[in-house]
Specification:
- There is one protein chain.
- The chain has 17 helices and no strands.
- 85% of the residues lie in helices and 0% in strands.
- The chain has helices at residues 12-41, 45-80, 84-108, 110-117, 123-155, 160-184, 187-214, 229-258, 264-289, 291-297, 303-338, 344-356, 358-376, 383-428, 432-460, 463-481, 484-495.
- The chain has 497 residues and is mainly alpha-helical.
- Helix 15 (432-460) packs across helix 16.
Length: 497
């Protein structure tokens, strides 16, 4: 396994497309689950409790994604030095130290955690949250190990196996949910998430084991190698601190949203899920698969800014079409997908929140691409401090803006805190001026394209027809004009091996 493969890499865009496809499947699973919950349970205290627990699940799975990114440079170097297996085992041992307390906390302290997360709301919401936590936390822990296995395969230039694992897990989880939902209620969703995590872990773990057997790897190669346990835990802490803080920016919003009435947490959760999915499918995929080639080639002066801006162009071009469609027909889309409980003003509120979160999406695109570069450049020490400051700022912003603007204020608070993180990351990468300017130019250009494509259609057609025509016009405009920044970004990412 240490020797890897002799085949050349797919290239960043091809690997990103494969990773994006698996991310899309996983996001599709989350979306379908959300639709099922909306149609079966509507907007109630029970759904508020479930989404409060789901926020914890997202925090841990985000840590899994960040650890997956953090270990990639180390595993890529270990592969070249023929000690990949020992490094994977060493990181897995460190993950056990992290996972056991999480599992114990979810089992032994589910009720007090649920009371805190639901803002001491209704007993129904607290019970739903506690029941979900007992299954969601183990599911998220499985994703911690699945991410490590996926990174081990990525060091061998294999992105397909992890993609298959995540897709298979999503499918199995959905089948279980649909089979048990009527008889067991909303807790069946948490069961499906646990099955999803188990399958996502087993598939890459089995393939890694098969590779080891095929190459007749000696048993001594499986001993922990490389950094000592405390150093590996330090890498995890540095890796997870900032992404967890970023997700806690959202979790901080939940108690404030819970005080705005029944269903507020659910509406905010759906809007956030839609916005976060767009960022994950685009920017996260590019940031993940570019870590290995950038580690091999090194970060020359100016590369960080070029990489962040190039990825932002590609990601924002896709996001622009989705936001334009939501601007014209968001209420209809929300009602059509989530059901009658989200019709009328409720659907319009969710759609409006997605639009208010557009600046957050822009900032998150930059963060998702810049974050992996911190590990390539080995700039880890500032990451926990950046996350801690952003979280402290978010508590104040969420408290103040929720009073002034309610759910819209929470969305604005998320944007401001995430922008703070983006600027800090770019500064650490010596790319603040060029990176911020490049992202701003890309966002402004895409916004102009969206206005030209969607506004005329919105003036003469109904909402859904205007959205469809607008997406077509937007796509044609991008292809015909081919802005210089997008062309340069596409060429850069295609050449990255």
């Amino acid at each position: 396994m240490s020797k890897g493969t002799d085949s050349p890499g797919l290239g960043s865009l091809a690997s990103a497309a494969l990773t994006a496809a698996s991310t899309l499947v996983v996001s599709g699973f989350a979306a379908i689950v959300g639709i099922v919950i909306a149609r079966e349970f509507g907007r109630t205290d029970e759904t508020d409790g479930f989404f409060a627990a789901y926020g914890v699940f997202i925090v841990i799975t985000l840590a899994a994604q960040s650890i997956r990114i953090a270990v990639l440079p180390a595993l890529a170097r270990a592969r070249d030095e023929r000690r990949l297996a020992g490094n994977i085992v060493g990181f897995a041992t460190a993950l056990v130290v992290v996972a056991v307390p999480l599992l114990l906390l979810a089992e032994l302290a589910a009720e007090p955690l649920a009371a805190l997360l639901t803002g001491n709301g209704s007993a129904v919401g607290e019970d739903a949250c506690a029941d979900a936590l007992r299954w969601m936390v183990p599911a998220a822990v499985a994703h911690l190990f699945a991410g490590l296995a996926a990174s081990g395969l990525a060091a061998l230039d294999d992105y397909a196996t992890a993609a298959l694992g995540y897709a298979s897990g999503s499918t199995a989880g959905l089948v279980l949910i649909l089979a048990r939902l009527d008889s067991d209620g909303i807790v069946a969703v948490a069961w499906g998430m646990a099955l999803n995590g188990a399958v996502a872990l087993l598939v890459p773990a089995i393939v890694l084991s098969w590779r080891a057997l095929r190459t007749s790897m000696p048993a001594r190669a499986m001993r922990p190698a490389g950094l000592p346990l405390t150093s590996r835990l330090g890498v995890f802490a540095a890796a997870a601190a900032l992404p967890i803080a970023l997700q806690l920016l959202y979790v901080v919003c939940l108690p404030f949203a819970g005080r705005l009435g029944a269903g507020a947490v659910t509406s905010f959760g759906y809007a956030y899920l839609a916005a976060a999915t767009l960022v994950s499918v685009t920017a996260f995929s590019i940031g993940l698969v570019s870590s290995v080639p950038l580690t091999r080639m090194g970060l020359a002066p100016g590369v960080s800014a070029q990489h962040v801006v190039s990825a932002a162009w590609v990601a924002l071009t896709v996001i622009g079409a989705a936001v334009g469609a939501f601007a014209l027909a968001g209420g209809e889309i929300v009602e059509g997908v989530l059901g009658d409980a989200y019709g009328g003003d409720v659907g319009q509120d969710v759609a409006r929140l997605v639009l208010v979160l557009t600046p957050w999406m822009i900032a998150s695109v930059g963060v998702n691409v810049a974050f992996p570069l911190a590990f390539v450049a080995e700039r880890l020490r500032p990451l926990p401090w950046i996350g801690g400051v952003a979280l402290a700022v978010q508590v104040l912003l969420a408290w103040a803006l929720a009073v002034l603007l309610e759910l819209d204020g929470l969305a604005v608070a998320l944007t401001l805190s995430t922008l703070l993180v983006l600027f800090a990351l770019l500064r650490e990468l010596h790319a603040l001026s060029a990176g911020a300017r490049g992202i701003a130019v890309a966002a402004a250009t895409i916004a102009a394209f969206a206005v030209v494509a969607f506004v005329p259609a919105g003036l003469v057609l109904g909402p859904l027809a205007a959205a469809i025509v607008g997406v077509g016009a937007y796509s044609a405009l991008v292809v015909l004009v081919r802005p210089r920044g997008l062309r340069a970004s596409w060429s850069y990412l295609r050449a990255l091996q």
